[in-house]
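Hi there. Long-time user, first ticket. I'm pasting a complex I've been working with (about 706 residues overall). I'd like to know whether the download I got is complete or cut off, because the file seemed smaller than I expected. Thanks.
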Amino acid sequence: MRARADIYSESDGWKGPLTWSAGLHGLLVAAIFIYAAIIGGVHGEDWGGSTSGGGAMSATLVSKAAIPLPRKEVVTENILANESEGLTQSQPKQVEQPPPEAIPIPEKTTKPQKQPKPSIDKSKITPKPSNVVPYGESGPVNAPTTMVNLSGSPGGLNFGSGDFGARYAWYVDAVRRKVSENWRKYEIDPNISNARRVYITFEILRSGDAANIQIEQSSGVPSLDMSATRALQRIDTFGPLPPGYNGNKVSVEFWFDYKK
Amino acid sequence: MKRLRSALILVAVLVSSYAASAQNDWIRTGTGLGQEKVRLGVADFKSSGADPRNEALLKTFNDTLWNDLDNAGIFDMASKSFYPLVQPSQPGEVKFDAWANPPANVAMLAFGNLGVVGSDLSVQGWLDDVKNTQSPIVLGKQYKEEATDAKARLIAHKFANEIIFRLGGGVNGITESKLYYISNRSGRKEVWAMDYDGADQNQITHLGALASLSPRISPDASRIAFSSYPKGSGLEIMMYSNELGRMVNFPRFGGTNATPAWAPDGTKLAFASSMRGAMEIYVADASGAGPKRVSSARGPDVSPVWNPKTGAQIAFVSGRSGLPQIYIMDADGTNLQRMTDQGYAVSPSWSPNGQFLAFAWRRNYGPGAPGGWDIYVMDVATKQFIQLTHDAGNNDFPTWSPDGRHIAFQRGGNGREQIWTMLADGSKAHAISNTGANSQPSWGIK
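Hi, the file is complete. Here it is re-exported in full:
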């Protein structure tokens, strides 16, 4: 029998702690998700939304009143930390010296080579523009932002807060109906009785036209994916976006459930 | 480690996708979310003044508005008996809870007021999304017209159109559209016109000829092409200008010329003609100049219709294989394709979106064969078809409404034909004419 000294054979020694570590990390991630789902969900969706019922706090927008809102924070680039190499000159790189030999041999000493002078490449220096705004001193004019009253519905300025579905539920409904109407289920392979959801994304432009139709997540059934894409391609227009909405387009994620 | 890393990546993806979505407004929706029709409540408009004419005009207005929305085919109309006792006439008076919950349980509510001031009729109308208490108003409109019954109807049509346009996905309603048809009420078969709901029927032509047939309104509703028997000649294509209110000149080709059809841009006319012997399809300019033959077969070819979406195809009826069948060809006569496979199929009409053909079909033809003359709709791409009418006598001459949601057709026979309309799925069929014999409808945008 040969002698064997395997110092790595103690596998139990670190498998346990690693499992613990992985488990605890998993727990931590799960806790984050649970927190986000329970606490974050309550905060994020329902507050003041249309689904929150009468108990929610309701904020009345003041129409046509000049409210001196705080100016929007637009920060100029820190001119010290941008890509321009600037006027200051950094220290030239040290030329690497060959490692000194252990025992210098006097007969073979070569002449000391001249070190090239570090030169500044002048083309790389961007001159400081004379009209540059000093750091932190630009942004929009600090004027009152006016609330507007758009086509009868008290809207106010849209800050792209993503509440399209809440404000124009009727439009979302019309989109859903229109797509459903144009979905021809007979285009789907008749052997399929049940399939995963297929998700399609597209954009509705101001005019109501659909653009950028893409399959976001396939159902795994080509004929179902195809029928979903065709349903959208058939549609000429969804009707112009609501007059009160001032974005240029909305993005739509649309899913198709198929079950026979 | 691996697990932790994948979890971190997941978190990063979630965060970045949230950040991306925050920049743009997103709609997330899908199929299978319940009923497909909007449940709509229409509160009777109220009088906004004390003028004695208000009451009669209100009745006309309310009836017209209700019928227009009911006929639109995209609404589930909540019965008026379910409505709250107090009905609004101004945006501030809407009780959202009462409307949004059973028994009314509507998603949308139309309401408003009407009043006569001097000689003017003034109407204010709103559409509210009653389930969205934050910003309920979808639509607010104001109209001013002469205080007459016809104008009250017109305003109701216009307001209904706005509602249909908004909630129907950007497709204009048909409440201001008109039907052109043949009627024998004056003794001879002449071209007549009526509103889409059967109101305001009036005679267009006064030719006094033996008969006028197959009127076709141009896409911009400026002209009516039809065929008739002018003195001393056979059946010829005739042209009536809606704008001038009189007949305009159209060349006579000799032989038999029938069933004109407008190209979608209104610059060309296809028709069946025997000017050079056999009955074939010809295409000419809208003025009648330069007719060119585009079909050639041993049997007769008649009843052309253009694909309104592309203008690149023509469907027609051909007897080249025996009994008449529906065929499709490119507008230059190439790429011939047979659509129906049996029986006796005539009177094709192409849907505005180019996807469907409606036609009259007797699938089992012959003495004692079962079935009757019925209206069918066929998907042009797949040749799948559905039957729209059942056990209801002879149905023929279907014509699509400009919004593609309705079909008008002729039902009955032996001098008792009448014009009917139905939704394009065959439901809600009802007659819109009842005097004399009325046939061969053509649906125009106005």
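A couple of notes from our side: Residues 117 and 159 of chain A are 56 Å apart (CA to CA). The beta strands of chain A are 66-67, 145-146, 198-205, 210-217, 249-256.
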